[in-house]
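Quick note —
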Amino acid sequence: MTIILFLVDTSASMNQRTYMGTYLIDIAKASVENFMKIRSRDPNSRWDRYMLLTLEEPPLNIKAGWKENHATFTAELKNLEATGMTSMGSALKSCFDLLNVNRMQSGIDTYGQGRCPHYLEPAVIIVLTDGGKLTSPNGVQPELNIPMNTSCVPGHELTKEPFRWDQRIFGLVMRLSGSVPIDLGSNTFIPSAENHPLDLMCDVTGGRSYAVYNQKMLNAAIESLVSKVQNGVVIQFEKIGPDPPPLQSEVNKQENESMKENQNINGQIIKLEDEKKSTPTPPPPLSSQLPCNTSWHNLRRLILVPRSAQKGYSVGHWPIPESFWPDNTNQTLQPRSAHPNVQFSCTSCEPMVIDNLPFDKYELEPSPLTQYILERRQPNVCWQVFISNSARYSELGHPFGYLKASSTLTCVNLFVMPYNYPVLLPLLDELFKVHKLKPTPQWRQRFDNYIKTMPGYYAQPLKRALARMGAHNLVPDNMDNCLSYSVITYLKKLKNMAKMEMDRLVASVGSKIPPHEGIKVSSRLRTSVLQRKDFSQLLKSVDGNLSCLKQELTDYNTFSIVVPDKGIKPQQFRNPYDIPRKSLLDQIARMRTNFLQTSFTNKTKLSDTDELHSVAIGQMGNYQEYLKKLHSESPPLRQLENTPTRVHMFGNPFKVNKNIMVDEAEDSMLAGQQSQKKKAAENSQQKLRSKRMGGRKPGMYFQR
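Predicted structure written out below.
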């Protein structure tokens, strides 16, 4: 399931009118609808879930969350209004809290047991804003600050950041001016909003921002956002050790470029003069000639997690190790960073794999790192990856996989293997090919030494892998419990607390309290205050001096405090308080037409033609409600042709009024009469036939 969360800026600055004649809030609504329309073309969109949040205070900011359906999402999107301030920090915190409460109760983060890329709940947070200043009750904020007091989310202290590694933020900053912009031609490049505080937050989570200046750029940005909805997690890659040695092709390329630079100065070709016979200067070292491009040394990129076509969800085998050694004597867990810091060494080595041993392969998102690896054109060379402090006695840790270019040199993949796989794979290969699944004591000793270097949370996946290969009972059972009893109890407690918090959050969103409407004058009350039993008991309990209170309330019985009922239409001719302020002049004109008319032949109309045909856009296609009201107000019309009632259940179904005689005597008499009528009819037909034949009997011929 991919969660697509729209955070729409509902501040007052979104009421700006653009050069297209629409407001920014309307453009934001149309952008959300256009995004959903384009996304629906992807077959993977059937697993999508849409959420809608605004910049209001909780719980009013959650318009469509976990329990709301698509119809509620669409209705809430149409009803958005731009009022309030641009409190972006607290709104993003509310988004993360809404997502992380569900993660905590499901337990997909597997705290203290490694990070499983196939245990993910990818979420894309799309922020639609106008790029104005961030405001709060304390004033204008120069930068985006997300409150860290997320006490409402159980287990928030287990992660340093408020977001997770599969949650990314994309900002759509709409900078559409009121004047017509200059046509940029066919250039579809969309710059990032570098001077906006939201851009830094997008980069931290692995996303990006889009600065939109016209409609063409807006459409291109939405299509780019749709392509960013991918199933994956974000990882921080960091190079350790020296750079790889340059290839000969790179050396030749740099030499050619340096020669061209020496030959071209100010657009003129400088010819070498042979008369200079001075001693040539030795060339600089090769390392100084090569460009110093270090953008691939440290970057944050997404790895794509494939989804199984048969099962519909991601399937994996091996986790990414934690940055600490698990010990069942520790009473607490160390907080982890949102993105694991994966270090890679540029030391070339050959990829290792054996038959029937499962491994996980994840494709890296295009980046300077993937470009650098593909340009080297070495599909048979891999770079090992590490997690620092993942081993007991090693600061760097042991390798758990490697980076390798594909055989077609089209992408770079991250292969996740068993922990310290350079030691395990030769042991397993020797077990199957040499010992034939009958390990010797020496082999068992080496395997036990490997087990001591492996974190305890690798025991269970290693058991499953060995059982799949046919080797059982090699991993001891006591390695399954790598966490202490207190930590396990604490994690179970957090799950229960998260479930309770989730129920509370859903209940608070479902019972949104409408804003205070004040005192209204209405004669459409279902139950008067004076008829209530508790009010009568209150009057009886007070002193006699207050007995006149009931009489006073009776005199002004038209004044009451009511809650507006959506099922009752406003009656503007009966109740003046139902008339909106902007419709007062139109209502006066209608009243003058109805009540000050000269002719009394026409009846008073409580609504004119204009009002009857004025329907909200959201209700124009709602024919079912119209038909329901039509049947309830007027009785249904009668049928044009009444269905004849059948007198009996036998005989010809098309003959309705057929008399059936019960008495046998009557039956015989009726049969005789029918036979006589039949003989008479036959005789009359025979006479008529003979007249037509000239008096001849049938069958007689004359001869001349």
